[in-house]
Amino acid sequence: MEEVLQDLIIKTLKFQCESQKRNTWIDFAYGKVYVRKSFRLHNGEMLRCFDIATIELEDEFRGQGFFKLFIDRFHKTNRRENIFFESVLNPKLYVYLTKFGFIPTGDKESLNLILLEYGK
Fold it and tell me: Are 50 and 35 in contact (CB under 8 A)?
């Protein structure tokens, strides 16, 4: 699992820091993640964000904590942008993210969360 996690972190950071593209799917051994570079309006201010919009994990890897490990590791290595999760539909992931420090943004039905750390 550690090798796959490291591969996903490297691919994510490479896209975030080096790619001129605004969005992409990042494939890894257990699934794929759709990410985007964005600016988000939060409390009247425009914030630079890195969005995690869609997470697709193969069934056999769901519920084993892989994505929680990814979030923790990515957070430790991400030093550029606020992290935004779009439409978190998994209730367990939503609870985990709020305990991690993510806060709801937008209307309550949107289930969007943002981790504010890197200013405007």
Answer: yes
